């Protein structure tokens, strides 16, 4: 069975940074997982939106190449006392795949609120005069 992806490892690296060989392997697997998450939100989104969101999800998961983890809003280090401290941002996550608010908007599944009742079809609808 072929695994669906909406971006390539090269797409992820192109807008991010060069990936190591091990990061390329991880990114390849994460792209498959991101496609499943994207399809759960909106399988009918445009190909461009799916590509962008896939890349964004994988980049967040892989993180930055620096000493500060991606998603950290603050950090501190000490030298001889061997201390590190990081404050995570609003998502509070590192490493996992998730859709943020902008990703959902790109996929056409933003902050809309609504409801549907299966009994609604049983009630005759009256035409509204304009």
Account of the 3D structure:
The chain is mostly helical and 130 residues long. The chain has one domain. 38% of the residues lie in helices and 8% in strands. It is built from four helices and two strands. It has helices spanning 9-14, 21-42, 47-62, 101-106, and strands at 72-77, 84-88. A two-stranded antiparallel ribbon has the order 1-2. α2 packs across α3. It starts with 8 loop residues before the first helix and ends in a 24-residue tail after the last helix.
The counted number of beta strands is 2
Class based on secondary structure composition and strand pairing:
mainly alpha
Question: What is the succession of H and E elements?
Answer: HHHEEH
Q: What is the approximate shape?
A: elongated
In terms of DSSP E residues, the strand content is 5-15%
Q: How widely separated are the two ends?
A: 53 Å
Largest sheet, strands/sense/barrel: 2 strands, antiparallel
Radius of gyration: 21 Å
Oligomeric state of shown chains:
single chain
Count of individual domains = 1
Estimated helix fraction: 25-40%
What integer is the average pLDDT? Answer: 80
Layout of helices and strands:
Layout: H1 9-14, H2 21-42, H3 47-62, E1 72-77, E2 84-88, H4 101-106
Helix pairs in contact: 2-3
């Amino acid at each position: 069975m072929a695994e669906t992806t909406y971006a390539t490892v090269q797409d992820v690296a192109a807008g991010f940074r060069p990936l190591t060989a091990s990061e390329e392997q991880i990114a390849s697997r994460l792209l498959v997982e991101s496609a499943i998450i994207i399809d759960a939100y909106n399988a009918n989104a445009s190909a461009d939106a799916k590509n962008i969101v896939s890349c964004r999800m994988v980049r967040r998961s892989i993180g930055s190449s620096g000493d500060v983890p991606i998603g950290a809003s603050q950090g501190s280090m000490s030298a001889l006392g061997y201390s590190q401290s990081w404050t995570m941002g609003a998502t509070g996550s590192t490493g996992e795949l998730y859709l943020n608010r902008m990703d959902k908007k790109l996929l056409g599944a933003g902050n809309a609120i609504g409801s549907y009742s299966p009994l609604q079809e049983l009630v005759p609808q009256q035409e509204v005069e304009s």
